[in-house]
C-alpha cells in the first residue's frame, strides 16, 4: 500500500483482526453487488469506503423520485438515470482508487454464472424471489459465498450462505425454490427508510469479514429485525439434505 492508502485505511489497519494483511486482502478482492437500490446503496458504499479493490454493480432499473427516501447512493439530479451508473458516480466520489464496474442489464442465468464466477463474494440486494434463487444457484455452482438481505415495512433479515463450508445451508434450504412465496413490493407495502441502511450495512460487514477471513459469519443463522421494537432474533438454519440446489455437493479442496 502507498502512503495515501495507509492513511485512508488507517482505522482498519489499527484493528488487530485486520491489520495490513486484512486490508491488503480487501484491496485485492472483487465483490459483486446485485441490485443498486435500498440495500445495494449502503452495502456498496461501505464496500467502497473500506477499500474493496473491485466492485461490480448490476441493476437494470432507473432512479425514480420515490427511491430517494431510502436509496442513498442516488440524488434528485439523477432521477431518470440508470441506478448502476448513478451509484457508480457516488462510489467514485467516496473512493476514486478502486475499480467500479456498472452493468445496466437484466442478467440471465448464463450471464449471472459468468459474473459470480469472477467474484470473491456476492451480495444479493434484490427484491424478488426469482432473482434471489437464480443468484443462489450460481453461487452454489461456483462455490462463492452469498450475503443475502431483505427489508419490507418495518422488518428486515440478513444471512450468509457459504457453499465452501460443506455442511452449510444454501438460500434454497431456507426458502425452497419449488414453494410459492409472494413477492411483496415496497411500492404497495412501504418500507421504513433507515432499515435498508441497517441491513445493507450488515451485508457489507459480512462481506468484508468473508473476504478477510475474520470473525464468524452468519452462515447457518438468519437474523430477523423487528424495526418497530428494535429487536433482533437469531434463528439457526440447517442444510436440507434433499435440497435440489446444494444436496450432495462437496466444498472444493482446501
From TrEMBL:
It comes from the Bacteria. Coiled coil: none annotated. InterPro entries: ThiF/MoeB/HesA (IPR045886), ThiF_NAD_FAD-bd (IPR000594), Ubiquitin-activating_enz (IPR035985). Residues 9-245 form the THIF-type NAD/FAD binding fold domain. Gene3D superfamilies: NAD(P)-binding Rossmann-like Domain. GO terms for cellular component: cytosol. Belongs to the HesA/MoeB/ThiF family. PANTHER family: SULFUR CARRIER PROTEIN THIS ADENYLYLTRANSFERASE, UBIQUITIN-ACTIVATING ENZYME E1. This is HesA/MoeB/ThiF family protein. It comes from Rugamonas fusca.
